[in-house]
Amino acid sequence: MAQYSASMVSHSFWFTEFSQYLDLREQGNSDADIRFLAIEENYFQQQSTARALRMVQTLKRRVNVLDVDYFDLFPSLDLANQKLINLSTSLQLDPLFDDFLYEVYRSELILGDAKLYSYEIEAFFNQKQIENPKVAAWTEQTVRRLASTYKSFLREAGLLEEQSDYDQVKRPLLDMRLEALLHTKGLTRQLAAFLGR
Predict the structure, then answer these.
(1) Residues 190, 98: contact at Cβ < 8 Å?
(2) For 95-106, what is the mean pLDDT?
(3) Cα(64)–Cα(105) distance, rounded to whole angstroms?
(4) DSSP 57-125
(5) In principle, which of 33, 54, 87, 194 could form an S-S bond with 157, CB 3.0–4.6 Å?
């Protein structure tokens, strides 16, 4: 059974900071150096030390799922594909979010409806609550916040566009080099979701 978590409710997409973290690593800074910059010098310009610490810990986890192939490719990609790499790291760290992308977003692309309504998101969480006792124990507020976080991440990644009473599902223009890299790394579920296969 998948190890699901609601920890994403306290995370943001943090694309700018993700890019800055990668730049700092490329410049030879260690994770400890970056943590020092984030906490002691407020490098990422957060409102509090606690927020800076939480953000830098999350960014470290995201960046550390990447290998040198991603580091080499990232600067040469357009903004949309760079955002997909940031999204990919979050998907790799959060099995429930990965399931959401694969089961809900991908289905919208395959069926051609391309309109994501709140009731479809609720249906996803209802099914997970039936399948998983940990998810079943979450409060309604936690589920709502998590659903909101998922939508926010997908909007910031360019995969959803907010409309009045639904989200328009958008198919990304995946760079062929990123597509090949995701395939090589075995991220076939992400690739299937991005491509609507």
Answers:
(1) yes
(2) 96
(3) 26
(4) HHHHHHHTT--HHHHHHGGGS-HHHHHHHHHHHHHHH-HHHHHHIIIIIHHHHHHT--EE-HHHHHHHH
(5) 87
The pLDDT tens digits for 112-154 are: 888 999 999 999 999 999 999 999 999 999 999 999 999 999 9
Pair 80, 131: CB distance under 8 Å: no
The residues, any chain, with a CB within 8 Å of residue 58's CB and separated by 6 or more, are: 11, 14
Rounded Cα distance, 135 and 138, in Å: 5
Amino acid residing at 192: A
Q: Count other C-beta atoms under 10 Å from residue 164's C-beta.
A: 4
Cα(96)–Cα(62) distance, integer angstroms: 16
**Interatomic CA distance for residues 51 and 170, integer angstroms:** 31
3-state secondary structure of 56: helix
User: Which helix (DSSP H) or strand (DSSP E) does residue 16 occupy?
Assistant: helix 15-26
The whole-angstrom distance between residue 181's C-alpha and the CA centroid of its chain comes to 17
Q: How far apart are CA 104 and CA 120, in angstroms?
A: 8
| CB 138, CB 163: distance < 8 Å | no
Instruction: Using the predicted structure, report yes or no on whether residue 1 has a pLDDT greater than 90.
Output: no
* CB-side neighbour CA atoms (13 Å) of 23: 9
